[in-house]
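tool=predict chain=A
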Amino acid sequence: MSFGRTTNKTDAAGILLLDQLVYSAFGHHAIFLPEALVLLDLSPETYANRGQPVLGAVLERLSQAGSDTDLRATLDLLRGAVKSLGSPRRPPSGNVDAEQRQLDRLAALAVRLRAGPLISGMTIHQAKGREWDRVGVALTDPEIEHLAGGLVQESDAHRALYVALTRARERVTRVA
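tool=predict ok
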């Protein structure tokens, strides 16, 4: 989950919200969290200690948002949460297009929050060295053919496929 690079203070506030969601689900921080904290002039220690209760309330509100009015109220709550975490100033509203971009991001996040448990999606290289109980793997037709004929250790593609298929402790499932 990412909204991309942080270009303004409201983007940075969105990164904090994403971080709370990603950290609670996977135990990893959002990629651009350090940049967001700097842009908002927030102490990493204060964020670590107070971020979850403050931003958890915003995520709860977002999970119940059903209208544009609800999303606008959630965006306002998010901006206030940043100030309450110790930022010198509340992130300002942007122009009409910038505000709509923020509302669209929140709407997408709200849909994701209501969709059920989060599932980590990553490349083979990102998964290397890690394990999960169950793993879903999207295989191409050539990869299926390689499996049917047997993998060759000297092939980079075959080694990558081996890594993908050996990340599960219990079960690997092919996904479309």
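The chain has a mean pLDDT of 91. The chain has two domains: 9-114, 124-175.
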